[in-house]
Amino acid sequence: MDATRLPGKPLADIAGAPMIVRVWRSAVAARVGPVVVAAGDEEIVTAVQAAGGTAVLTDPQLPSGTDRVFAAVQAFDPDARHDVVINLQGDLPLFEPSNLRAVRDTLDASGADIATLAAPIADAADFENPNVVKPVMSWEKGKTYARALYFSRSRVPSGVGDLYHHIGIYAHRRQALARFVSLPPSPLEKRENLEQLRALEDGMAIVVGIVDKPPLSVDTPADLARVCEAARLESRPR
Length: 238
Prior knowledge:
By secondary structure, the protein is an alpha+beta fold. It has a domain at 96-214: Spore Coat Polysaccharide Biosynthesis Protein SpsA, Chain A. Helices cover 35% and strands 22% of the residues. The protein has eight helices and ten strands. It has helices spanning 19-30, 42-50, 65-76, 97-110, 174-182, 187-192, 196-201, 221-235; strands at 13-14, 17-18, 36-39, 54-57, 84-88, 114-120, 134-139, 145-152, 164-173, 206-210. The protein has a six-stranded mixed beta sheet, sandwiched between helices. Strands 1-2 form a two-stranded antiparallel ribbon. Helix 1 crosses helix 4 (97-110).
């Protein structure tokens, strides 16, 4: 709730529903397993429960979203019945449910520790945009996913070829998630301000599945206005 660029962001109204509720609904629609909102504020828990969802209140001082997810999983599933945990950011209110299935399928097919998604960058202005994270990937012939070598806010790799926009969703194997949160922030993680680099520096395998386009994320009032307009157009009778 204390987002500096957009205070109260999780409860921002989008076409009549709080943003976090829209994300929760998308996750439920994917039908990949139980959906739990990991919240750092009572107001978020109340909004999710009012919509019929499950939310777990976590320590607001946790250092990262991944730590918050791990704390919520430990509270919701202390017996470790679920061996895969998908971390979907709460600021993607137009997220397609099919993308949740895609990241789960990528993890299943690869045998990696962590799977995530990316989409081709369509707007050349995003090549240099530090808010658009770019994965550097190694492709293997015949595979539907690529091995992640690095992630950066800079334009990488250089030269001719496609560049990709990383999407903020991760499918973790339960053991990999526990291992990740036990590690201190790594040097490259702190340099790029990208926590997935902690996993790569520790030797964990991350694979990237490719989807057609990235969902609109909300970080600023301008982003919120764009998402509200897109949601309004989406809800119009056809």
